[in-house]
Amino acid sequence: MINQQTHRFFIRQLSFSRQSFARQFPFSRQRGFSIPAALFVLVVVAMLAAAMQKILSQGEQDVAREVLSMRALMAAESGIERGLNQVLEINPASCTGNLSNPPTSLTPLISTWVLSTAGMNSCEVNVICGVAQHDADNDGLLENYYTLRSSGQCGPPADRAFRLVEVQARG
To answer: What are 9-39's pLDDT values in tens digits?
Structure first.
């Protein structure tokens, strides 16, 4: 059995050791402040990362739409070039639209030309054509004036880019 004096000495010794520990390490009494500060910093950094991700994602979508738009323009211009070659070089009679009758003035020249070139896989082109005859230089001869309108469409059906190009040529 432990006598009363030994017990008191042991308690004094314990209390002395706690006080000396507190004197040696004065920061031990400031418990718990670093955890909320660290959590606050983590939350702020996570919010900044989420905002940055949203900005980058939006930028990627804008670039993809711009690429589709340029492809649609290139497809429409290719349709115009093919249509002009058809009308001016190969078969001028293939353009049957009558521009003197405005409601039905343009008729299909190239219908649903699906491009199979690399980079233009999801593009299609439609070209319509109309012709009018005029004596522009007053020499008594009628000349053909062609109007060609080409529409280029590229991309998936949900996010399709559409461009329209129209030219007029004398043949």
So the answer is: 555 555 545 555 556 555 555 566 788 888 8
Given a contact cutoff of 8 angstroms between Cβ atoms, the answer to whether 148 and 167 are in contact is yes
- Asked if residue 48 has pLDDT above 90, the reply is yes
Q: Kind and range of the H or E element at 145?
A: strand 143-154
- Give the integer Cα–Cα distance in Å for 37 and 164: 58
Rounded to whole angstroms, the Cα distance separating 161 from 171 reads: 32
The CA-atom distances, in angstroms, between 96 and each of 9, 88, 92, 148, 171 are 118, 13, 9, 11, 14
Give pLDDT tens digits for 109-149: 777 777 777 777 788 898 888 888 888 788 888 888 888 88
User: Residue 169 gets which letter from DSSP?
Assistant: E
> DSSP string covering 50-116, please?
HHHHHHHHHHHHHHHHHHHHHHHHHHHHHHHHHHHIIIIII-GGG---BTTSGGG--EEEEEEEE--
C-alpha span between 9 and 69 (Å, rounded):
89
